[in-house]
Write a structure and sequence with these properties.
It comes from Vanilla planifolia (Vanilla). Its EC number is 2.7.12.1. Keywords: ATP-binding, Kinase, Nucleotide-binding, Serine/threonine-protein kinase, Transferase. With about 500 residues, this protein is of the alpha+beta class. It has 4 domains: about 30 residues, no CATH class; about 130 residues, 2-Layer Sandwich (Phosphorylase Kinase, domain 1), CATH 3.30.200.20; about 230 residues, Transferase(Phosphotransferase) domain 1 (Transferase(Phosphotransferase), domain 1, Orthogonal Bundle), CATH 1.10.510.10; about 90 residues, no CATH class. The protein is built from 22 helices and 12 strands. The chain has a 6-stranded antiparallel sheet, with helices on one face. Helix 19 packs across helix 20. The N terminus and C terminus are likely disordered.
Length: about 500
């Protein structure tokens, strides 16, 4: 009986008892059973369709987690963001290299895939139900049957996803900066009209594809459009030549590649879903959304129009946070709203401040705004924007219709940009042999493009040599650094800089 009592006595109490002899076997409490270790998501287990940790790893999770597998447990911050440290692992497969950005949804981290040794971007969603649900919508869209078609267009490719410590993590290909970040770091200097044309075409291609799938993005904005490459070149900004060049203000950055991809499909919805709630970021919100009239595919095209103006001017067109002021700005730029839309609207009346009146009064008419920033093609661009920014959504241009607009289909531009897309400059840069093998083809393509440019301006091949050289330099600027290097022409050539 005494032995049984000693075995059942709490171990902590035995440590405090004065002992007169060494502890015998019957004094030891029975060993505790090993804890039952579930497969928790916070232990580094990537769940669902991604990399899955072998069962051999699970004993480590309760007997001392190795540092190279997963970081120690930390609570999220007050907003539900994942707390991390640079250099630690995000699951055994990914190592955190840097923080790329942060938004309402969560954070984007640059990580190293320890299996492929490639850098990826991982979107870590806040551990809040509504953001988790939005992330699952985005994942579902990427897992549709036409996912592989998405990769062929200007939509960011989803590589993998997993649930980690109550955070949905989506793995994407690593891309360059957003158009907004590029503008911001470039002191909000506008893009050249030819670059705006190419960016607009790619954006409308993506929107048209989504609309064909009966999907509405609902959150198109420069922050959600990423350049594929981070490379850029510095060229003179002739609008700032009157300023001192000591601080570099007379130069601006130009992307080395115009390729873009669309991201952030967490707000995407299907055509048949309820469309009575407020969507889109304020600056890019369509009038039917503000007026509470319901919305559909045309709300994306309004956002595209606002984006094109921002790329041309360097600034968002409607910088406001209040509905009445927003509508007043629209009327200032585009003219009066249709009476039938106002009659159907549910809009509370509020007093208008002097600051609001001044902000509205500063805005120019659409035609004047474009003429301030665009030297050529202004007429085509104004006509396109009037179609995209039509108040009545039933009369607004559709994505496919916008792609057929003369702003995109002029023979001169089509010749030039088809010439650009003939060559994969990234491949040629990564494989020097490609440059050597395709040299004759590059020269032949340049000859054809040169003839097309000269014909488009009413000239034949029997023109002064200087005009032929100008046509060649136009092609050089468009083809990219790899082809320019192949043919021995640098972008710092004075004539080339004048044409950028």
């Amino acid at each position: 009986m005494e032995t049984q009592w000693a075995a059942e006595f709490p171990h902590a109490a035995l440590e405090k008892r004065p002992r007169k002899r060494p502890r015998m076997t019957w004094d030891m409490p029975p060993p505790l059973p090993p804890p039952k270790v579930p497969r928790p998501l916070y232990c580094g287990h990537e769940y669902v369709n991604g990399y899955c940790i072998s069962d051999a790893f699970f004993p480590y999770y309760h007997s001392g987690l190795p540092r190279h597998l997963s970081p120690p447990w930390r609570p999220d911050d007050k907003d539900g963001h994942y707390v991390f440290a640079i250099g630690e692992n995000l699951t055994p497969k990914y190592r955190i290299l840097s923080k790329m950005g942060e938004g309402t949804f969560g954070q984007v981290l640059e990580c190293l895939d320890l299996e492929t040794r490639e850098s990826v971007a991982i979107k870590i969603v806040r551990s809040i139900l509504k953001y988790r649900e939005a992330a699952m919508i985005e994942i579902d869209l990427f897992q549709m049957d036409l996912h592989f078609s998405v990769c062929m267009l200007q939509l960011c490719a989803n590589l993998n996803w997993f649930d980690y410590r109550n955070h949905i993590c989506i793995v994407f290909e690593k891309l360059g900066p957003s158009l907004y970040d590029f503008l911001r770091k470039n002191s909000y200097r506008s893009f050249h009209i030819d670059l705006v044309r190419d960016l607009g075409r790619q954006l409308l291609d993506s929107v048209a594809f989504m609309h064909d799938m009966r999907l509405i993005h609902t959150d198109l904005k420069p922050e959600n459009i990423l350049l594929v490459s981070s490379d850029y070149v510095r060229v003179p900004d002739y609008k700032a030549l009157s300023l001192s060049s000591k601080d570099g203000t007379s130069f601006k950055n130009v992307p080395n590649s115009s390729a873009i991809k669309l991201i952030d499909f967490g707000s995407t919805t299907f055509e048949h879903h309820d469309h009575n709630y407020v969507v889109s970021t304020r600056h890019y919100r369509a009038p039917e959304v503000i007026l509470g009239l319901g919305w559909n595919f045309p709300c994306d095209l309004w956002s595209v129009g606002c984006i094109l103006i921002e790329l041309c001017s360097g600034e968002a067109l409607f910088q406001t946070h209040e509905n009445l002021e927003h509508l007043a700005m629209m009327e200032r730029v585009l003219g009066p709203l249709p009476s039938h839309m106002i009659r159907s609207a549910e809009l509370a009346t509020r007093a208008t401040s002097r600051e609001s009146m001044r902000a509205v009064g500063k805005l120019p008419r659409l035609q004047n705004l474009i003429m301030q920033h665009v030297d050529h093609s202004a007429g085509d661009l104004i006509d396109l924007l009037q179609g995209l920014l039509c108040y009545d959504p039933s009369k607004r241009l559709k994505a496919r219709e916008a792609l057929c607009h003369p702003f995109f289909t002029r023979d001169f531009r089509r010749c030039k940009f088809n010439c650009c897309k003939t060559w994969n400059t990234d491949l040629m840069l990564s494989d020097p042999s490609m440059v050597h093998l395709n040299g004759e083809q590059v020269a032949e393509s340049m000859g054809n493009a040169e003839k097309g440019i000269l014909q488009s301006i009413g000239l034949n091949s029997e023109v002064p040599k200087v005009l032929q050289e100008i046509a060649q330099l136009v092609i050089m600027v468009c083809l990219g650094s790899a082809v320019r290097a192949t043919l021995g022409i640098a972008l710092d050539d004075p004539m080339a800089l004048m044409l950028v």
